Amino acid sequence: MATHGATITWQRGDEVFVDNRYSRAHRWRFDGGLEVPASSSPHVVRAPFSDPANVDPEEAYVAALSSCHMLWFLNLAALRGFRIDSYADAAEGVMLKNAEGKEWVATVTLRPHVVFGGPQAPDEAAVQALHHDAHANCFLANSVRSAIATEGSWAYEATG
Predict the structure, then answer these.
(1) Which CATH number fits domain 57-156: 3.40.50.2000, 3.30.300.20, 3.40.47.10, 3.20.20.140?
(2) Which of 74, 160, 66 lies closest to 116 in space, CA to CA?
């Protein structure tokens, strides 16, 4: 069993706070020491009370799902003898309202473009199997109720 943590910090500063006109900018600190500037989404809280330059929880959620899928995909490809030269994903999450009128990230669509190289070229079935198995193994995909779709593309670049 593993435990994962992050430290989230926010300071009021000179703002009144109870008038609801305060900055939502805050910091995420991870166990390795990395600090990430974070904020509420400007789609939820308008600027200047949010900071559009910072990472918001919804973006982080989409990025975490994409990253988890990619890490499993790379691992499984290596185990199956396929060399990956690059992987880029333009992932997107869509917020909708549920039956109770509450907003949630209803769907996350992963759009990875994978470039294979080396002596062994995959076929479409092999690539689809890699995506299927990556999704099935992703810890985060197994932890959420959002629908997660993969609409990837791939290429093989033969090397001399």
Answers:
(1) 3.30.300.20
(2) 74
